[in-house]
Amino acid sequence: MSSSSAAPAERPSMREALVSAAFRLFLERGYEQTTVDDIVALAGVGRRSFFRYFPSKEDVVFPDHERCLADMTAFLAAGDEEHEPVRRVCDAARLVLRMYAENPTFSVQRYRLTRKVPGLRAYELSVVWRYERALAEYLRGRFAGRPEGTLQADVIAAAVVAAHNNALRSWLRSDGVGDAGAAVDRALGYVQREFGHAAEPAEPPVRVHPLPGGEGGRPDDVVVLVSRRDAPLWRVVQELEAALGRA
Q1: Residue 220: what pLDDT?
Q2: Which residue has the higher pLDDT, 199 or 7?
Q3: How far apart are the first and last CA of the chain?
Q4: Residues in contact with 172: Cβ distance below 8 Å, sequence separation at least 6, in sequence order
Q5: Dihedrals φ, ψ of 230, to 5°?
Q6: For residues 51 and 38, what is the distance between their CA atoms, to the nearest angstrom?
Q7: Which of 136, 141, 156, 191 is deepest in the core (most CB within 10 A)?
Q8: CATH superfamily of 62-199
Q9: Number of Cα atoms under 13 Å in the Cβ half of residue 43
Q10: Which pTM was predicted?
């Protein structure tokens, strides 16, 4: 069969065509100098078609984040009690990495663009905040009823986002060279090691036991402090000071 009979390449969707046209113009003219009219003219569509897919020019720079946020929310909602919660939110963050890694060239171009345009940087931060809130809401549900459950959830969610973004941005600064997955796994592994114990409704890391005193002493003159090996030093000192204060 001759090559002329081969099936034609699949045409990009209108959404993809708009994103491609937008970034071509952003690179050639600059973001601020490019209008929506310029984008639709290059893509060969009307203004109504643009706004059917993107509420604003900023949204065309981040075309996949809404879908990714929806996927993350669904992934977290599908978890049950058998899933260790800290690992679950780390796996949810990997969905964001997968979105970036699907098209490294586009991701690197977007990274460079957001570094130059303050408005896009602010938009990106708002998107990151929504990811963090999704992670925190899931963890709040899993840690409900604990004395510091809300605090734990918010701190761990922030740590997951910070670790993920640290590795992701290092990969983007290197022009998408190297294994982004390995870098993110290493960063998220640190979060799991540091905060994984928070997922366990275990006994307090520090316990104080007053013991009977010596001859003529008060009943609480002797205090025995029992601490887990991984308990932070500040917590040990805090509990000891509190016990001595009560005594």
Answers
A1: 53
A2: 199
A3: 93
A4: 100, 107, 108, 111
A5: -90, 5
A6: 14
A7: 156
A8: Tetracycline Repressor, domain 2 (1.10.357.10)
A9: 28
A10: 0.73
